[in-house]
């Protein structure tokens, strides 16, 4: 196996609809409880949020702190290792903003939104 191209490995960690959203919420808010994350991302199911958090925890991107109390309390935060992703996520966000502006210049605001949402290119 070659060691010079690990782009796919990085994408495996970031790809999907929810991981970037979860990470951006945690970067913006610091430590968050599960219920806070769920309220911050209303379209995600409990099962999907749990799965995505476990995967991010496995990769040491986020830390899961369990407080043994009644009722149980679990908090999530970005690890020191995870903070190394800040420039990458910021660059992706900046590119996304620029890309939306570019599409709006090409197609107009309403058409650009439809293209981003995955609607057909052909009317």
UniProtKB/TrEMBL annotation:
InterPro entries per record: HTH_HxlR (IPR002577), WH-like_DNA-bd_sf (IPR036388), WH_DNA-bd_sf (IPR036390)
Q: Which Gene3D superfamilies match?
A: Winged helix-like DNA-binding domain superfamily/Winged helix DNA-binding domain (1.10.10.10)
Q: Which classification does the entry list for the species?
A: Bacteria, Bacillati, Bacillota, Bacilli, Bacillales
Q: Which residues form a coiled coil?
A: none
Taxonomic superkingdom: Bacteria
Q: Which GO terms describe its molecular function?
A: DNA binding
Matching entries from Pfam families are given as: HxlR (PF01638)
Q: Where is the HTH hxlR-type domain?
A: 5-104
Protein keywords: DNA-binding, Transcription, Transcription regulation
Question: How is this protein named in the record?
Answer: HxlR family transcriptional regulator
Keyword Metal-binding among record annotations: no
């Amino acid at each position: 196996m070659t060691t010079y191209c690990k782009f796919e490995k990085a994408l495996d960690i970031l790809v999907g609809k929810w991981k970037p959203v979860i990470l951006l919420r945690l970067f913006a808010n610091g430590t968050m409880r599960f219920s806070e994350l769920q309220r911050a991302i209303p379209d995600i199911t409990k099962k999907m949020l749990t799965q995505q958090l476990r995967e991010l925890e496995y990769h040491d991107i986020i830390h899961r702190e369990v407080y043994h109390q009644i009722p149980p309390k679990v908090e999530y935060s970005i690890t020191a290792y995870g903070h190394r992703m800040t420039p990458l996520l910021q660059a992706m966000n900046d590119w996304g903003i620029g890309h939306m502006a570019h599409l709006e210049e090409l197609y107009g605001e309403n058409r650009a939104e439809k293209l981003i949402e995955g609607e057909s290119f052909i009317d």
